[in-house]
Design brief:
Blueprint: H1 2-14, E1 37-39, H2 41-51, H3 53-79, H4 89-161, H5 166-201, E2 209-211, H6 225-235, H7 237-259, H8 265-328, H9 334-367
Parallel strand pairs: 1-2
Helix pairs in contact: 1-4, 2-4, 3-4, 4-5, 4-7, 4-9, 6-8, 7-8, 8-9
C-alpha cells in the first residue's frame, strides 16, 4: 500500500507543470489578401481581436491550467483515503500545495488574458486616432499650402504695382516651398500611421484603410477615482503577477513548515523569500494606484487644455482673416500675413494634439490600461 501510494504521489507532484508554446490561430487572419478596408474604430478593434496571436496564446494557457486542475483533482480522488502515517511531505504537496498553486496560476492566466485584450484594444484605439490625426494634419498642411500660394500671388501682384519690395516676393516664395515640404511630410505621416494600425490589426501593411469614425472628443463618462483604483488592483497584470508570486511563496513556506522547524535554514530562507514577495506585492499596488491617479489628473488637464485650444484655434482663424483684410487695404505687410498664417498653423496643430491626448486619456479608463499601451 505504501509503495503504491508513493507512486501516485510522484505523479501528482508533477501534475502542476504546464507549458504553452507560441501558437497562432489556425483560422486565416481577417483580410489576409490585403483588400481595401472601410472600418469604424470598433471594426478595427474587432479585427485585431480576431487576428492577434497573443490572445490565442493566453487562451491556451487558461485551457492548459483547466486541464491541470482537473487532472490533479481526479488523481486526488483516485488516491482515496490515506492513513495519517503515510501522509508525508509528498502527500501534502500533492493534495494541498499543488492544487492551490494551479488555481492561483489559473486566476492569474485569466487576468492576463483579459489584460492582453484590453491592451490590444487600447493600442488599436491609439493607432486609429493616430491615423485620423495624421489625415487631419495633412488636410491642414494642404490648406496652409493654399494660403501661402495665395500670399505669393498677392506679393507678386503688389510688387508689380510697386507697393512691396522684391524681398517680400522672395519671402512668400520661400514659404510656398516650405509648405510643399510640409505637405509631403504629412503625406508620409498618413502612410506611416496607417501601417501602424494595419500591423496592430494583423492585416498586410499595404492595406488601404478608410476610417469612418471621426476625430471628435470622446469621454469615458464620470469617473470615480476610488472605484477605478479598486478595479485596477483586480485587473492590472503587474499587480496580479506580484500577487501570484506572493501566493506561491506562501504555499512554499507552508510546505517547508510541514517538514522543517521554524528555526531551520530551509524554513528561514523560504520565509525571507515570502516576506520579499509581500513587499513587492505592496509596491505593485502602490505603483498601480499612482498610475491611476496620474491618469486621472492628466484627464482633467487634457480636457481643460482642449477647451482652451479650441478657443485659440477660433481666435487664430479670425486673426488671419482680419490680417488679410488689412493687407488688401494696405494696412498690413506681407510679413504680418505670414505671421498670422504661421500662428493659425500652430493653433491647428495644438488643437489636433489636444483632441488626440484627450481621447487617449479617456481610453486609459475605458480599458484599464494605465502604464502604457501593448
Amino acid at each position: 500500500m505504501k509503495q503504491k501510494t508513493c507512486k501516485w504521489l510522484a505523479v501528482l507532484t508533477t501534475a502542476l507543470v504546464f507549458a504553452c508554446s507560441g501558437m497562432a490561430f489556425a483560422d486565416e487572419p481577417v483580410n489576409a489578401a490585403g483588400q481595401p478596408m472601410k472600418l469604424s474604430l470598433q471594426d478595427a478593434i474587432d479585427t485585431a481581436m480576431k487576428n492577434n496571436a497573443q490572445i490565442g496564446v493566453q487562451q491556451l494557457q487558461v485551457e492548459a491550467l483547466d486541464v491541470s486542475i482537473e487532472e490533479i483533482e481526479s488523481k486526488i480522488r483516485s488516491l482515496g483515503r490515506v492513513d495519517f502515517a503515510y501522509q508525508n511531505q509528498d502527500y501534502y504537496m500533492a493534495t494541498e500545495i499543488a492544487p492551490a498553486k494551479a488555481k492561483a496560476s489559473r486566476e492569474m492566466a485569466v487576468k492576463a488574458l483579459d489584460y492582453t485584450k484590453n491592451s490590444i484594444a487600447f493600442g488599436v484605439e491609439s493607432a486609429y486616432y493616430g491615423v485620423l490625426k495624421a489625415e487631419k494634419n495633412l488636410e491642414f498642411a494642404k490648406a496652409s499650402l493654399e494660403r501661402t500660394n495665395t500670399q505669393y500671388k498677392n506679393a507678386q501682384a503688389s510688387f508689380k504695382k510697386g507697393s512691396v519690395a522684391k524681398l517680400d516676393v522672395l519671402s512668400a516664395e520661400a514659404n510656398v516651398k516650405t509648405a510643399e515640404v510640409t505637405v509631403k511630410q504629412a503625406e508620409n505621416g498618413v502612410t506611416s500611421a496607417k501601417m501602424e494600425l494595419a500591423q496592430l490589426m494583423g492585416v498586410p501593411l499595404t492595406t488601404e484603410l478608410t476610417l469612418t469614425t471621426g476625430l471628435t472628443p470622446r469621454t469615458a463618462g464620470n469617473i470615480d477615482l476610488g472605484a477605478a483604483i479598486e478595479k485596477g488592483l483586480e485587473t492590472d497584470v503587474s499587480v496580479a503577477t506580484a500577487k501570484l508570486n506572493m501566493t506561491n511563496s506562501e504555499l512554499d513556506l507552508q510546505h517547508t513548515g510541514y517538514t522543517y522547524a521554524s528555526k531551520s535554514y530551509n524554513y528561514m530562507k523560504d520565509e525571507a523569500t515570502h516576506k520579499s514577495n509581500v513587499i513587492q506585492y505592496d509596491e505593485a499596488k502602490k505603483t498601480l494606484e499612482k498610475n491611476v491617479r496620474n491618469a486621472y489628473n492628466n484627464l482633467a488637464t487634457t480636457a481643460g487644455n482642449m477647451e482652451g485650444l479650441n478657443k485659440s484655434l477660433e481666435l487664430a482663424k479670425e486673426s488671419y482673416r482680419l490680417t488679410l483684410l488689412q493687407y488688401d487695404m494696405g494696412m498690413a505687410t506681407t510679413y504680418d500675413v505670414q505671421n498670422a498664417e504661421a500662428s493659425l498653423r500652430q493653433a491647428e496643430l495644438g488643437w489636433l494634439d489636444a483632441i488626440y491626448n484627450n481621447n487617449l486619456a479617456n481610453a486609459k479608463f475605458t480599458y484599464g490600461v494605465y502604464s502604457g499601451g501593448m
